[in-house]
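Q: What residues go here?
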């Protein structure tokens, strides 16, 4: 059927019998044979005529790319039509879902990775380092659900230069999870509306999405809404935030899906408020939350 797949079938025919394929090194997969005596285990192999065909599943096969993820994740693209079948909109987390931190070899200030950039801009304009750091912390207390331009305006920093330095930081430290991009593309092809639910402030969301090719500094044509910390006034781990998110969507909770990586804030809490279609990536990466200071 002209499908861009079939590796396992072809390899089984070439090697024979029950085979294993180890993709630890994608460029040099290791193929082996396994000897299984079904009768010894009181098992029998059955062939069932399902009266069906794979002829109309080319699109589903085509979206499955080898990305080094587990079989469960690889199946997500093909199964997303079933998982999110009743959803009108699917929410996506950003950190450790769409993007990740390549390493933690960068300075932070008050638990935030971009505050050192803001402090340095202030020092270049005559502030003492300690005074700049105290002023940044004071503003976070005065505006609990801040966004980065709040600092640019409060301290009279040049927006163009501030944006440039923050973008350069993201280009250096932020990586993109290709399996999440594959899922986003698949859901868009299925006609689903997509939105963001993130623990980043709005501009921080845009910078990370821009790194993934899903937005620019003016907004996103991929995501219809961005529920950032300054928009919903809190982080997803705070129970009051989820009713705020749901109140901003014109759909019943059962028509909303969620894709993330955190069992509490991307699964348990949204499920508590009626969201049933949920998928979690198992990234096994350290989480770093900088959207709000507590």
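A:
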């Amino acid at each position: 059927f002209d499908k861009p797949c079939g590796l396992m079938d072809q390899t089984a025919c070439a090697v024979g019998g029950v085979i294993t394929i180890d993709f630890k090194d994608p460029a040099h997969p290791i193929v082996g044979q396994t000897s299984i005596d079904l009768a010894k285990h009181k098992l029998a192999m059955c062939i069932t005529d399902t009266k069906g065909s794979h002829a109309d599943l080319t699109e589903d096969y085509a979206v499955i790319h080898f990305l080094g993820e587990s079989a469960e994740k690889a199946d997500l693209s093909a199964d997303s039509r079933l998982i999110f079948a009743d959803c009108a909109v699917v929410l996506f987390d950003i950190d450790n879902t769409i993007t990740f931190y390549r390493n933690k070899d960068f300075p932070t200030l008050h638990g935030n990775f971009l505050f050192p950039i803001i402090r340095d801009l202030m020092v270049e304009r005559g502030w003492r380092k300690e005074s700049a750091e105290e002023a940044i912390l004071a503003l976070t207390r005065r505006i609990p659900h801040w966004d980065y331009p709040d600092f640019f305006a409060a301290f009279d920093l040049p927006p163009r230069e501030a944006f440039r330095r923050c973008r350069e930081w993201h280009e250096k430290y932020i990586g993109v999870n290709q399996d999440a991009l594959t899922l986003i593309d698949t859901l868009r092809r299925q006609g689903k509306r997509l939105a963001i639910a993130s623990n980043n402030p709005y501009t921080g969301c845009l910078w990370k999405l821009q790194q993934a090719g899903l937005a620019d500094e003016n907004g996103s044509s991929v995501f219809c809404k961005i529920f950032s910390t300054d928009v919903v006034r809190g982080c997803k781990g705070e129970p009051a935030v989820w009713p705020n998110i749901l109140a901003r969507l014109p759909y019943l909770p059962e028509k909303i899906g969620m894709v993330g990586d955190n069992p509490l804030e991307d699964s348990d809490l949204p499920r508590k408020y009626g969201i049933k279609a949920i998928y979690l990536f198992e990234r096994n990466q350290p989480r770093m939350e900088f959207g709000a200071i507590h």
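A: Context that may help when evaluating the design: The CA atoms of residues 105 and 173 lie 9 Å apart. The two ends are 56 Å apart (CA to CA).
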